[in-house]
Here is the input.
Amino acid sequence: MGRESGGDLDTVASNAFYAVWVHHHLREMLGRAPVYGEDYAFDFVNYSEGLFHLVVHRGADLYLPDFPIDALVPRIRMVVISDPAAIAHLNEFSRLTTELRRWMTDYVGVLPRDIVSISNEIFLNTAKMVEHQEPEALRAGCLVVYLFYNLAYLSVADPSKGAAELIRQTVQHAVGDEFKQLKQRLLDVLEAKHKQDLMDRVMAKRYDPAVERGYLLALVRAADEDMSTKGRIDRTEELILLVVEMTACLVRGARLERALPLSEFDAKLAREMNDDLDYAGRALQRYFLELLAKADAMQPFGDEGSGVAFENLKTCLRSLAEIAAEIRTPDLPPAREGLVPIRLMLMYEATGIAVSNIEIIVRRLAGGGAFVLPDGTEHPGPEIRRVTDRDGAVEIFYRPSDPAEPYRLSATYDDLSCVYFPSDRNPNEDPAGPHIEESMDFGGAPAMDRTMKVSLDLMDRQIRFLRDHDIHIAAIDDHHPYTPAILANLEEHREQGHIGHIRLSSLPRGQEQPKEDQKCGADLIYEQYVEGKPWDNPGLRKLRDIAHVQDLALERNDLAMDLSRLIGLKHRKIDIVMTLAQNVKDLESLEGIMARFGWSKEVSSFEGMLSQVIPRTEETVGHIVLGDGDTEVSRTRILVAMSPFSDPKKGEPQVNMATAKGYLLGRKGYPADYFFYCYNFDSLQMRQANPQDDRLDLSLLAQRLGTPGDGGHRGAATCRPSLNPAFPARLFSSMNELNFLQYLGWLGARISESCGLRLLDVLPPAELDLSDQQKDFLEEIVRDSHLLELARPGSDSDRIAVLAVRAPVKSQRAPVGYLQVFHHVRKRGDIHYLIYCRPGLSSIVIQNVNDPAKRLNPGRLAKDFGWPEDGGTDMVGIASGRLNKYIKPELRWLKGDDFSRLCSLFALLFDHRTDYKVKAHSRPL
Here is the structure.
């Protein structure tokens, strides 16, 4: 079943039916009651994670219910490797986590809960760990995994008080006050403003433009990485994540000091930044030395195995302290003169395990240079093909025809997922063209052929891998639409005896069964393993029925909703499965199960906390409007909402799709034919909301917006837009209220291309529900704004009204953000463009609010309001105002008359950069 953060009632009910069958089936076989963990077990499978991790269940028969066969293909990540030393550490990390997972599986009923919890966090954070390439950070991550591997061994092998005390002290060190103090040291470094201040110094030095751009790009990238690290660390309670992120931060700081003349920018700032990094490095070293001292104070362990584990543990701590001590002197390996390195690694996204023997194609898109192999052999053609080695890696070089050649290269393994060299090229200055990423699409047969070939190869590999490790896929039962080639591949394995049986109650993608013929996963498992058997009863039959109506959205059932809420609040799904299987003996026992096991109180408490969070879904919500005519009847509305922030420190729950849909479409009444729910750019969940509108096949649309492995049903599907080769990653590094409408514009354009409907508009809902307090606050914001009236020279009628506003401070009395301001200004009808300024000018949004003629281009204006790396579209542009050298630092905070002076500067930019002149500048409006 899906991980604890996913899954639904259909999956849980399917596994409950399996548990009922297993209990009776194995009792007959064994002549005794089966033991969980010894005779049978449950594990988790995620979309596109693959099945390789199930290798820990050697000798098992594997049953897969309610899981799309297309999603069985493991998703691959292609990574550009800057330091070749990282490759060995990445592979070592995946090896150690696999070993730890196997150990945890073998001794799951014996291990202390604290060790299980910490180990589970290691598994859940694997994808975050392998995003790093700093060898020191990866090595630190490996040592932390090995540390807890040895601790887990001691907890099983040595029952002595000494071992128990060592485990207690180590766990306390990993989660207690020492951990919190270490975390604060890192946050102190990340919250310092040295890099931002150094950007000001660079702009004041008046360097050559190309030199200045290089310095600023390096500082901006470093500041963005710090912000990303802070976002991860701020809410984490996991030692491995803190250690890896802290080590990586210190390595990046050291490399930045070596790469840039920071003292030349400002000697005092450079010294302060260096001191902060040294302080953090010493704190990291001290953290592990203190734990080592506690271990050294323990008595030696008598048992040979325990003694080895104890010494291994101390060696890990010693090595971690050494990394912290030496961390400030790293450097990248020397480059080969005149050659550009192209180092790539393929890994399974979920586990980080290397993918060998896959062909990677590197193409020259612009330039006249040649490819060079590691042995010096030159390859003059426009493309080169190499197969990944046993470490999942490929290394080649590119020799430009001239040192100043504006070359452009692409690399792909499936003609869909691409990376480009150089990676920091501004798309507007790209010799291969600004739309290079959009040119890679799903439409061509060669791309799809290659993609499918890779997918089938990966499917074959994992099935053979499981078979070679004595794991037999006994059954696959599913009801989701499928790709015929995937099914044909599985059928071949079934004929060869690698799979027991395959039962699909569905049709190929693009086709839909009539509602009366549709079955859910619980239907399939109940029919085969429970129905008509001695262990069948009315309660289990009712469980099947409510799972059916819930999954296929046929009708509302209160018990189904309660169980779904229990699953959604991340109650352990295995616990729910076992409780249902062991206690549903009749109809009454099912209907009373929520109260009997305290689940009703749990859900009620959850609902109380949820009520505090769910109104935030209205803060970032918008409509994509599509149509093929001019009437309301001809229009299709997609309501899109972003999952709001919830603070786990305060016990705030995350708002899931079902809850958000019920709140926005049900309780608040926002009109929608379809509802889309975003978890940043990583996951987009889509549901049909109006049964009368069937213009969109969401299963096919998921492939268009995400990848070929995404999908679901015609009326319900999930995809990952950030993995789409056409996804504009330069525009969307993270989702927020400022770029939300811009993102909806990208989604709307892709949907329009897919379904043939015209994209008519992207905007906040006209029905946006605002409190009186919010409306009053919005009026104050507008009264405090500046109105710039532009006119085309020689024309009295061609006028444009531009409103510049200060972003409200979050701590102020009413929850108002950019979308609420946009909505309020648009409703006025007399404003054509909005300029929205955040304090500090980290972002200036230039938005077309009410100008169908698009007389100004916000994307181009963003470069003038910020710097050349900024941009956008003909509807919206986002500028980094703090990087505009003509905006003095004292103006950035928008205080008092400073905002008026800033707006005067905006007026000058309009005068010089557009065909219009500012005729009036007034305040208040």
